[in-house]
Amino acid sequence: MNNDYELETHAVRTGQNRTLENEHSEAMFLTSSYVFNSAAQAAARFSGDEPGNIYSRFSNPTVANFEQRLAAMEGGQRCIATASGMAAIFSMVIGLLKTGEHVVASQSIFGTTVVMFDQILRKLGIETTFVPLTDHAAWQDAIQDNTRLLFLETPSNPVTELVDIRALATLAHDHQCLLAVDNCLATPVLQRPFELGADLVIHSATKYLDGQGRCIGGAVIGDETLLNDIFAILRSSGPSMSPFNAWVFLKGLETLSIRMKAHCENALALASWLEQQPQVERVYYPGLPSHPQYELAQQQQLGSGGMLAFDVKGGKDSAWQVIDHCHIFSITANLGDTKSTITHPATTTHGRVPLEQRLQAGIGDGLVRISVGLEAINDLKADLQRGFESL
């Protein structure tokens, strides 16, 4: 595929490897294994002397199509697809770090990611220091002689904090560290981490890449050298993406650009409206001039995304009341869907994060997170208004 194509063309055409049937849509290869022409060919495939598929735990044509397409859209050399976004993060860390090495991570990351770094990886001898996402000096002070990786989300989930990726990439490389950016909320349509110096990009394909809340999946994108080590983990431990899910994600990528633009338009309109509601203390959305990193968002992103959060006056009881009065918004922890979703992060997505750590990340009891879908904006406003009027 021509690397000079723009993102929208890659989203529709890259990774389209037709079979002898010359099908127009991508084929779905639902097979666990592959037949060899001879024992000699089987041996050559397993040894790596001959290219070709071996076993769908680590080689499947449909999954490969998805990997090629997403790598092209992100501007990376290679992509490895995984069973979930968490599997992508875990495979990356286990593939690149060893016992006794150290990670610096933003404290403003997804709650399950905090648990992985703080509890699971700690058992394996990989220590993590959490720092405020926006405090560049804190990142610098946290780096140790054994630090190997800097990990972050930007925008963060759920309070949409941003960090200067280029500045943090410079800091990481000055200390011979890698910078991994979770680009789940922005997607390659709105943010280009590799162009800003990142070494690795992570995705939960479950979110905007799918776009309709159908399948679970993840991905790691980077250069060949780094991904070879991660692929070794995938091949031997098996956190693999299923061919069916890969096919669904291929279809999602085709409309990603159009959907992200619509999500951004709806989210900005809803965030602006929420700022005017007397029951709301604060709105978190990078597209608002009131956002602390508004200027950075204008420079670093091509749109402010489809997720926002807001603090309701009255704490948890008021937040729950607003949520429970919604008829259109789905009460679910997923995001990136064409259907608008609403959740209470302190008791759902970040419920396992220790209270002090959760509050440091800006997640109070009155915080409500919304993933703004593609419904009519006036209907979404009216749905929330019903909850506000109940307070």
UniProtKB/TrEMBL annotation:
It catalyses: O-succinyl-L-homoserine + hydrogen sulfide = L-homocysteine + succinate. Its EC number is 2.5.1.-. Pathway: Amino-acid biosynthesis; L-methionine biosynthesis via de novo pathway; L-homocysteine from O-succinyl-L-homoserine: step 1/1. This is O-succinylhomoserine sulfhydrylase. Homotetramer. Gene3D superfamilies: Aspartate Aminotransferase, domain 1, Type I PLP-dependent aspartate aminotransferase-like (Major domain). The modification N6-(pyridoxal phosphate)lysine is found at K207. It comes from Candidatus Venteria ishoeyi. It is an enzyme of class 2 (transferase).
